[in-house]
Amino acid sequence: MVGITSFEAYIPAYRLSRDEISRAWGTKNLGGERTVVKYDEDSVTMAVAATLGCIKSSRHRADGLFFCSTTSPYREKQAATIIAAAVDLPRQTRTADFTDSLRAATIAVNSAVDAVKSGSAENIIVAASDCRMGAGKSHFEPLFGEGAVALAIGNADVIASIDGYHSVFSELLDMWRADGDSFTRSWEERFIINEGYMHTMQRVISEIMEKHGVSPKDFSKAVFYGPDKRSHTNLARRLGFNLETQVQDPLFDTIGNTGTAALPMMVVAALDEAKPGDLILVANYGDGGDAFILKATEDIGKFRGDQKIKERLEKRIHINYEKYLNWRGLVPLQELSRPESPTPSITCLWRESKSILAFYGKRCKRCGTAQYPPQRVCVKCQTKDDFEDYKFSDKKGNIFTYTLDYLTPSRESPAVIGTVDFEGGGRVMCEVTECEPSEIKIGMPVEMCFRKVGRKGGIHNYFWKARPIS
Amino acid sequence: MGIIKDKVAIIGMGCTKFGELWDKSVDDLITEATFEACEDAGVELKDIEAAWLGTVFSGHTALSLSTPLKLQYIPVTRVENMCATGTEALRGATYAVAAGVCDIALAVGVEKLKDTGWTGVQPSNVVGRTTMGTTGTELELSPPALFAQLAVRYFHQYNLSTEQGKMLLAEIAVKNHHNGSLNPKAHYQNELTIEQVMRAPIIAPPLGVLDCCGVSDGAAAAIVTRADMATKFRDDPIYIKSLAISVGPSRDPISQDYDFSHVEENVRASKMAYAEAGITNPRAELSMAEVHDCFTIHEMSIYEDLGWSKKGRARDDIEAGTFKLKGELPVNTDGGLKCFGHPLGASGLRMQYEVYKQLQENAGPRQVRNPRLGLTHNLGGTVWGGIACISITGNEREKR
Asked: Quick count: other Cβ atoms within 10 Å of Cβ A401?
């Protein structure tokens, strides 16, 4: 049996209410709110957060990592390798990026299933993550949300088997971004919804049901991608699913359309509530349609993720539209009259990649002192080269001292700076993210999170920051 | 192990006015400070046998000194130790004379910060690693944010509310501005009130703008010679009693052993300096001191680090006025970095200039009574990975 063996969602803490967007533009209020990534997050950092959670809840080692996104940081360079390095997967891990299609996540799941079935892999993590942007005043801006999901696909301790897979493609330019486009474009709505979404989804869904001899009444849940609320509802109704009892909430009111992560997010929400034996119909859209049937196994009761989607939605920090514009780099800022920081040295980044991306320090074998960054000579006992690797990314700590830096170059001022003392030893001075300046205090418990720290010379630079434990 | 005490004397010093010297170049500043020092010593440039230049950003090599002064093919060295650079230049010149390789040596410190168009000084990497390459992931903090973390933890450790702590820091700023207002060479010429300091815009809590030293242009210079030759040049040479430097292993940002309530390098350097100078009770034996008040909290920490106040009790001495001009141990009589200004490479020698003038009783309205021994303290780097330099000088040479 092949199927989902572990899963985790990452939902950014920040929210932009649709009310706030309609205030800014004088447009119609769609109701509800959407998620927003902070300026130090992107598809990669969100995927790292989801993947770390997925690994933590998994009983099996991952031997593959597939990254799915339409907002990968690089045009030419794999992002899965960044994620694999950050979550500290072994070098033998199979990595791939599935990009350019909103259907990327199900295409990747299909490939992962095939790989596991063929015996070339045992447990592949599919991490879908997106932060697409709609132009100001467009209906995409309030509609889009940001988030990530990681699903592990394997053949042992399966919590939901993947039975059957059906796929069709369609060549129709309904939503797209050309090279250099920041915002999603689209063709006339009535055409793309009817001839694109409705037509394709009805086809792929009816064909898979026919192929497997099942009908809507056999499913306890129907999880359909939807470009927007109304089209999603119309599709479910046309196919004969009961909106009240069967159709998975597309999370438009709480998260928004998270692109490649949208369908996986709904799958996770459905699995959060699934009981052994439940049959779940899943269908994704984008340049065609993918459908498969999930069947919850006995093990679903035993699976303990970190938090359910419902619980994850509880942490909400509302921001205003101006902050959103700033975070997304949509307004030019006055540059500080300070020297420009140099372009990162790729050689230095490569040499220190284990400590930078996976946040490894060292622990002295002689005196037991944990230290970061890695040293050659022990900070405590001065012994040379007698260390073992010591990972800090999963360690919790407390703020020993702190300040707010109003002068350091940052998209937002002040930067919150903390000196973190880790449980088990070691001290790191770092930025504290998701922390209001008034919130930080001595003794505050923190955990580490993988964040984007800069982009210069076309290099996206990532590092770890502390974050208050909520 | 030998000591430097009474082997070398300062026979001439110079110091430019500090400030935003828009109309002066690095070369102008070097020239003015050096020629003042030469005139003071009664020597000419051609008498100088070796020279040291200290600068952080305003020059690259020894050529930055030999070129403006047209030094004639003598040995010249450029040194750099961040904010302790000025004292480092003096150390080079002093040790060369003590080693007997030359009889007259020059030390110059210079910095021109105001040609950059920047406000403040550039942010520095926490680890203080200054390789050519950078990963771009290093935490970059502005200098106030480096020292603010000391204040936050100090206040916490010794149960001071932010208000109480800031009030004590304000006393330091007010004291130093009072002293500087009596000094025509100081960058700032104004007095401050406690209210002004307390209400100044915050830039790295709890530090406000008026807890920070001036960002200035300036240069200072010293001419040193063998102690046994000093009186040939002048009646009142100033004798070097100790020159200590303590360079930290940057333990503190990565080890939980550090309490963030003191500066270990300061403690170590002061112990070395007192031992070398033969001082057992610094608070009583020192006549005055010039210390590295880049931020008010650092001066507060220095009172304890250098053994003048009990640990955690600097407060008592601030409240008692111990370190005021007329107090028991006047500190920063010329205005300090706070008011005199802080052109990084020049500051150590500027401090020495004030101690020199005080010990010669030439400090005008700022003159302390019966001066015998004066101390300069210079810290390069940060509170958790620094370079502490201390000089102790006196106006008497011990009989041998």
From this structure: 25
- Are B186 and B224 found together in one domain? no
On the question of pLDDT at B400 being above 90, the answer is no
Choose the closest CB to B254 out of A341, A409, A427.
Answer: A427
Query: pTM of the prediction?
Result: 0.95
Domain identity same for B98 and B14: yes
Select from A101, A128, A105, A134 the least CA-distant residue to A34.
A134
Give A-chain residues touching B116 at CB under 8 angstroms: 339
Contacts of A185 (CB under 8 A, 6+ apart): A175, A176, A177, A178
Return the exposure string of A176-191: e unless at least 16 CB atoms fall within 10 Å of the residue's CB, then b. Answer: eeeeeeeebebeeeee
Cα dist from A430 to A209, B48, B247, whole Å? 53, 48, 23
Asked whether residue B185 falls in the same domain as residue B93, the answer is no
Taking CB atoms and an 8 Å limit, are A345 and B134 in contact across chains? yes
In this structure, which amino acid lies at residue A290? D
**Confidence category of residue B130, pLDDT binned at 50, 70, 90:** very low
Residue A334 located in a structural domain: no
Alpha-carbon distance of B233 to B242, in angstroms, equals: 22
By percentage, how much of chain B surpasses pLDDT 90? 88
Reply yes or no on whether the pLDDT at A219 is more than 80.
Answer: yes
* Continuous H helices in A2-100: 18-25, 43-57, 80-86
Asked whether the bond before B201 is cis by omega within 30 degrees of 0, the reply is: no
The interface pTM score, or ipTM, of the predicted complex is: 0.93
Q: Do B123 and A417 touch (CB under 8 A)?
A: no
Kindly state the helix (H) or strand (E) to which residue A165 belongs, with its residue range: strand A160-169
- Domain CATH code at residue B35: 3.40.47.10
CB contact A344 to B (< 8 Å): yes
CB A467 within 8 A of CB A433: yes
What pLDDT is recorded for position B117?
80
A417: amino acid identity, one letter: I
Domain end position, chosen among A263, A293, A327? A327
Q: Are residues A366 and A298 in the same domain?
A: no
| Whether residues A231 and A309 fall in one domain | yes
Using H for helix, E for strand and C for coil, what is the string for B271-283?
Answer: HHHHHHHCCCCHH
List CB contacts (< 8 A) between A417 and chain B. Answer: 139, 141, 145, 149
Query: In this structure, are residues A177 and A30 in contact, taking their beta carbons and an 8 Å threshold?
Result: no
- Are residues A427 and B253, on separate chains, in Cβ contact within 8 Å? yes
Distance CA B94, CA B391 (A): 11
Q: Domain residues for B304?
A: 144-210+239-394
Distance from CA of B134 to the nearest CA of A (A): 5
| β A221-224/A279-285 pair status | parallel
Q: Where are the alpha helices (DSSP H) in chain B?
A: 26-41, 63-69, 85-98, 143-157, 162-181, 194-199, 230-233, 264-277, 282-285, 296-305, 314-320, 336-340, 347-359
Check whether B367 has a pLDDT greater than 60.
yes
Tell me: do A107 and A183 sit in the same domain.
yes
Provide the pLDDT for residue B177: 98
Domain span at residue A372 reads 346-468
How confident is the model over B58-109, as pLDDT tens digits?
998 999 999 999 999 999 999 999 999 999 999 999 999 999 999 999 999 9
Annotated catalytic residues of B are 83, 342
Alpha-carbon distance B194 to B174, whole Å? Answer: 7
Could you give the 3-state DSSP secondary structure of residue A330?
coil
Three-state secondary-structure class, residue A80: helix
pLDDT at B329: 98
Alpha-carbon span B242 to B236, nearest angstrom:
18
